[in-house]
Specification:
The structure holds two protein chains of two kinds. By secondary structure, chain A is mainly alpha-helical. Chain A contains ten helices and no strands. Chains A and B meet through helix 6 of A and helix 3 of B. The complex binds adenosine-5'-triphosphate (ATP) and magnesium ion.
Chain lengths: ~250, ~250
C-alpha cells in the first residue's frame, strides 16, 4: 500500500515535469517550420471522434429534456426544459461528455501510438538523434487538445440543446421559440465560460495522462494494451474529480 | 575514441555486461560478434547513454558519456549516427521525411536542401525510388536501409550499426559492407558494427571482438581472429564454414 502510494506520487511528479516541458516548447513547435505537426494533431483530435460526439451529444440533450420535462409537466412548467437543458449542457454535461469521449478515442490512440513507439525503440531513436521526444510528440498533442477541446465542447453544447428542443417539440409540446426564449433568459455567459475552462483543463489532463502512459510502456504489445487501458481509466477518474472541484469553485 | 572502463550492467536480473574493458580507436571499423542475447545491442546503447552502466564508465573522446546529461549529452549524441536493430522508423512519416528528420528538427536548412541530401543518402543505400513510401509498405531489409540512410544523414563521425545486413540478400549485404568501408576510407568515420555475418565482419572489420556471457573473450584483427584458440570463437567460425586457413578476403573500397 505504502509502496503503491509512493509509486503514484512519483508518476504524478514525472507527468507534471513532462507537462511543464511540453508547455515550455509550445513557442518552438508552433513556429512556421513545425506548425504542420500541430495542425495534423488538431485535425486528428477534432475529426476522429466527431461522429460519436454528435450522437452522444444529441441523446444527452434528449434524455435531459425528457427526464426534466416529465417532472416539470406535473407542475405545468414544461417550458423550463429550455433553460434546464441549456444550463446543464453548458456547465456540466457538454465538457464532461466531450472529455470522456475524447479520452476514450483520441487519448487511448495517443497512448497506444506513443507506447508502440516506446517499445519499438522509436523513442530511443529520437533521443539518439538529440530530438526531444516531449517537444516532438507531446507539445503538438497538448496544443491540439487545448485548442480543440473548447471547440468540440461548443459543438457538443449546440447539438445537445438541439436534441432537447427536438424532444420538447415532439414529446412535450414545447415550441422551438418558447424553448429558445426560456434558454436565453436563464443561461448566463458564466455558464459557458466555466464549461469552456473545464474543457481546456480536461484536454490538458487527457494529453498528459495519455503521453505519460505511452512513455512508461514496457513489455511489448501487452504493455501497449495495458497503457491504453490505464489511460482511459485514469483520465476518467481525474476528469470526474477535477470536474466536481471546478463546479464547487464557481457555484457555491 | 570510445572506451569502456570496467563496465557492468544488470538487466532483468541477469548480468549482461561483466566488467567490460576495451578501446575503439578513431577511424576503426570495430565489429562485435556474439551469440543472440550476448549483450551486443546493450553495448551499443551504452555508447549513447540509452543505457547507463551500473558500475564503470563509458568515454567518447574526452567526454564521459555515461554521466553526461542535458545539452552536454545532446552534443555528444550529435556526433553519432545509430542504425537500430529494428530500424526504428517513425511509422506515420514517409521514407524521405524519416531520413530528413534529424535535419528538419535540428538544423536551419531549407526544405529543398534537406530533400536533396535525403535523395543522395537514399541513393547510397539503393533506395532512391522509395522516397514517397511509408515504412509499412517496405520489406524488413528496405526498412533497415532507410534506417541506415537516416543514421548517416548528418555525416556523423561515429556510426553504430546494429545488424546492418541481417535480413538482406547477399548482393545488397555486400553493397552495405562496401558503403561502411567507403565511409571509413573516404571520410575517416569510426564505425562499430554488430553482426552475425562473419564473412562481412572479416571483410570490413579492422578489429573483431567476440562477446560471450557478458565478457569480451577475444579482440583481434581479422587475420588473428580466424586463428584464435578461444573455443567460442572457434565454434562461431566453424558454424559459418570459415576455416583457420582464412579463406576470405577484404572488401574492395570504391
Ligand atoms: N530493457 C531490457 N530489460 C531487461 N532485459 C534486457 C533489456 N534489454 C536487453 N535485455 C537482456 O539483455 C541481454 C542482452 O540483450 P541484447 O539485446 O544486447 O542482445 P544481443 O546480443 O543484441 O542479441 P541479438 O543478437 O539477438 O540482437 C538479453 O538477455 C536480454 O534479455
Ligand atoms: Mg541485438
Amino acid at each position: 500500500m505504502g509502496r503503491n502510494t509512493l509509486l503514484t506520487l512519483r508518476n504524478t511528479g514525472i507527468a507534471m515535469l513532462m507537462l511543464f516541458e511540453a508547455f515550455r516548447d509550445i513557442p518552438y513547435m508552433i513556429s512556421i517550420r513545425h506548425r504542420h505537426d500541430v495542425l495534423h494533431q488538431q485535425f486528428l483530435t477534432a475529426i476522429k471522434s466527431l461522429g460519436v460526439i454528435t450522437v452522444v451529444a444529441l441523446f444527452t440533450g434528449m434524455i435531459l429534456a425528457l427526464q426534466t420535462g416529465l417532472e416539470l409537466r406535473r407542475f405545468g412548467q414544461e417550458v423550463y426544459i429550455g433553460s434546464a437543458v441549456t444550463v446543464v449542457m453548458l456547465r456540466e454535461m457538454g465538457p464532461f461528455m466531450t472529455a470522456l469521449i475524447i479520452a476514450a478515442s483520441v487519448g487511448s490512440a495517443m497512448s497506444a501510438q506513443i507506447g508502440t513507439m516506446t517499445v519499438s525503440e522509436e523513442i530511443s531513436a529520437l533521443e539518439v538523434m538529440a530530438i526531444k521526444p516531449v517537444r516532438y510528440l507531446v507539445t503538438p498533442r497538448l496544443v491540439a487538445m487545448i485548442t480543440m477541446m473548447p471547440l468540440i465542447t461548443v459543438y457538443t453544447n449546440i447539438i445537445g440543446v438541439v436534441g432537447g428542443a427536438v424532444v420538447g417539440q415532439t414529446q412535450l409540446g414545447v415550441s422551438i421559440t418558447a424553448y429558445m426564449d426560456n434558454a436565453t433568459q436563464f443561461a448566463e455567459n458564466k455558464d459557458l465560460y466555466v464549461g469552456l475552462l473545464k474543457s481546456v483543463i480536461f484536454g490538458i489532463i487527457i494529453a498528459t495522462v495519455a503521453c505519460h502512459q505511452g512513455f512508461s510502456t514496457t513489455q511489448g504489445a501487452v504493455g501497449v494494451g495495458r497503457a491504453t487501458r490505464k489511460t482511459v481509466v485514469v483520465s476518467f477518474l481525474i476528469i470526474l474529480t477535477t470536474g466536481y472541484m471546478i463546479t464547487r469553485l464557481f457555484y457555491q | 575514441m570510445i572506451r569502456f572502463e570496467q563496465v557492468s550492467k544488470r538487466l532483468g536480473g541477469r548480468i549482461v555486461l561483466d566488467e567490460i574493458n576495451y578501446t575503439i580507436e578513431p577511424g576503426e571499423t570495430f565489429v562485435i560478434v556474439g551469440a543472440s542475447g550476448a549483450g551486443k545491442s546493450v553495448s551499443l546503447k551504452h555508447m549513447v547513454r540509452l543505457l547507463s552502466p551500473d558500475s564503470g564508465r563509458v568515454w567518447v573522446g574526452e567526454d564521459c558519456v555515461s554521466e553526461a546529461r542535458g545539452d552536454n549529452l545532446d552534443r555528444i549524441r550529435e556526433r553519432f549516427g545509430f542504425l537500430f536493430q529494428s530500424a526504428a522508423l517513425m511509422q506515420w512519416l514517409n521514407v524521405g521525411d524519416n531520413v530528413g528528420l534529424p535535419l528538419r528538427m535540428k538544423k536551419d536548412m531549407s526544405d529543398d536542401a534537406i530533400d536533396e541530401l535525403v535523395r543522395e543518402k537514399l541513393a547510397m543505400v539503393n533506395l532512391a525510388e522509395a522516397f514517397e513510401k511509408h515504412p509499412g509498405e517496405l520489406s524488413g531489409g528496405m526498412r533497415k536501409r532507410v534506417g541506415l540512410a537516416r543514421a548517416i544523414i548528418t555525416d556523423p563521425e561515429i556510426i553504430l550499426y546494429d545488424e546492418p545486413t541481417s535480413g538482406l540478400d547477399p548482393v545488397t549485404s555486400r553493397t552495405i559492407d562496401q558503403l561502411i568501408d567507403r565511409l571509413r576510407v573516404e571520410l575517416g568515420v569510426t564505425s562499430i558494427v554488430v553482426t552475425h555475418d562473419l564473412h562481412s565482419a572479416l571483410a570490413i572489420g579492422t578489429r573483431i571482438a567476440m562477446l560471450n556471457e557478458g565478457k569480451m573473450v577475444e579482440v583481434a584483427t581479422p587475420e588473428e581472429f580466424v586463428k584464435s584458440k578461444n573455443e567460442f570463437v572457434q565454434g562461431f567460425l566453424a558454424a559459418q564454414y570459415i576455416t583457420t586457413r582464412g579463406d576470405w578476403e577484404k572488401a574492395e573500397s570504391a
